[in-house]
Amino acid sequence: MVDVCILGHSHIISVLDAITDWRTKHEREIVTQSDTFNLNCNVTNFAFGINIHQKWHLSSTFKIIENIKIKNKNNFEYVINNIFLKIIKGWSGDIPIVSMLFGNEHAYAMINSLPEYDFLDEEIHSYFNGVQIVDTTYIDLHIEKWVAAIYHPLRIIRGLVPNPLIHILCPPPRESPELADDLEILIDLVRRYGFVSDSLRLKLYRRYCRKLTSALTSINCIVLTQPADALNIDGLLKLEYAEGLTHANKYYGELLLRDLEMLIKG
Amino acid sequence: MNPYKNLPKENFWSSSISAENIIDVDFDYGKKYQFAAADIFATAGSCFAQHFAKKLSEMGGHLLITEERHPLIPEDCDHGYNVFSARYGNIYTVRQLLELLEQAFGYRNTIYDFCKRKDGRIIDMLRPRAVPIGFASVKQAMADRNYHLSAVKSMIVTMNVFVFTIGLTEAWINVDQEYCYPVLPGAVAGEYSPRKHKFINYSFSEIVGDFTKVVNIILSNNPKARILLTVSPVSLVATYEKRNVIVSTIASKSIIRAAVDKIVRDFDAVDYFPSYEIIIGSYSKGVYWAEDLRDVTEDAVNDVMQVFIKSRIPDIFHNITNDHIVVTNDLNDDIRKAITKECDEMYLDAKIKPGNKIY
Known about the structure:
The complex is a heterodimer of chains A (266) and B (359). In chain A, a hairpin with a 3-residue loop joins strand 12 (242-243) and strand 13. Chain A is 34% helix and 17% strand. Chain A has helices at residues 12-20, 22-25, 82-90, 136-160, 187-193, 198-217, 250-265, and strands spanning 2-8, 43-50, 57-58, 63-65, 70-71, 77-78, 97-100, 117-118, 132-133, 165-168, 221-224, 242-243, 247-248. A five-stranded parallel sheet of chain B has the order 2-1-5-9-10, sandwiched between helices. Chain B is globular. In chain B, strand 9, helix 6 and strand 10 (270-272) form a beta-alpha-beta unit. Chain B starts with 12 loop residues before the first helix and ends in a 7-residue tail after the last helix. By secondary structure, chain B is α/β, with parallel strands linked by helices. At the A-B interface, strand 9 and helix 4 of A face helix 4 of B.
């Protein structure tokens, strides 16, 4: 048995569902309860055990903490307050702390509401000719805000407790977003503007993941990447692992738990 | 019989200067055409063209912008958009304009000439002040140059009126490929090298030849376009000729003015607006010169534009009066800055003067 403590926002639901069919039990029909997947969503923390047969279960200490948030001077919300800190301190020890905090900050970037653009990425070299190429300096200004939402809470945790710290990256953009049955909070924007190209969605996401990984690695936080089996050849989330427009389902959660177990057991 | 006898009063000095207000002097008498309020203007040229574009827009003219700030780019950073119709920065010589258009329309290969600034940003040597913040990488700079050229092409085929203000005959060129820089390499960015860079002072025939090619490129891609030329009244900040800068200024402006006159006579689509004469002519009694006697004041820009609007876009002029043209302190500051600080040439001066910093 391996114990872990998990905290996260809506992306954690794929893992919870993989363990207990959690949403059915808690009468939540959709991933994004209260029509929001964003920074105002609940922080969930719980502990659970895993064994080698992947018989996952939630421990009796499982609980949900509602509406933990704080705004910084840029009006950007971080999950930092006294209740949060108290919980984290209570986890102090050698049990790994697994974060699935935030992760959907990049979702608005998939909406085609801006004049056409592209940018040059160090790893994805292709770009559209004839459209405005926005300097990566400005792209990074936006990405850094998305990174900060995760980095700062984890930096504080890192300073508070000695536990191993693991962050699970949010799922990549899904393939065929137009087929999503639930357009979540973006429903009006999608209907009005549609989506940017797959390549731009993916490029933004990957750059975000790289920046986040770099930031988290610097504070000795291990980053768990997306399960390869859930991605198509381009790197988009396969339909069978997607839920709604921006989330993954319990099958994705199962893959995550498999990878998490492998990571923890070394 | 005296052939002058029945000529209009504008043909005579005494009656021309008898008007009390400058707005009442018909400097633009003899013009080939007027514009409608709906006409779409594109502007390019020297520092003076910046003010022309800005004031034209403020007074209700329709200024075309084909290269705009993307919403992802912060408004308050030094991005260089919206100074001209596209982000080419100051274009001082006709050769510079010709090479820009040739690249935009694919008549010659794109010129990629970049340097790395001390802060690590990449600067396009063909428009070093047009993108003050520079680029993150050479690839980024190349991609932006490609996009810039497509915006220039779009501008030429879309506009109705192209206003070009010519400033200089002196320039520096790349020795190997003979393309023209807007300002001496090393003055704003990069490094001057006698092996790589050569001084040139374009002659009357060279300017006329370049002008002819420019007009042909524009009209072959936009047959209904009209081209309005002006000459910058701003004096040279420095000359590389072995003569006094004042002498070079007069020589340079005279050559440009003569070349413009030739082109205006050669092409029906090309006309001249006498902003140069309004400012340097004796009627103004020198009041339009700034303290350094080189730059022009904001009053000069305002008066020139009023004459222009009254003469060329009467539809707009009827809708404005002097009272409506409010020049706020902020605006004055903007114009003053633009006149005194945003000219590439000023960097040449700064470079020459010991102790002045250039980034």
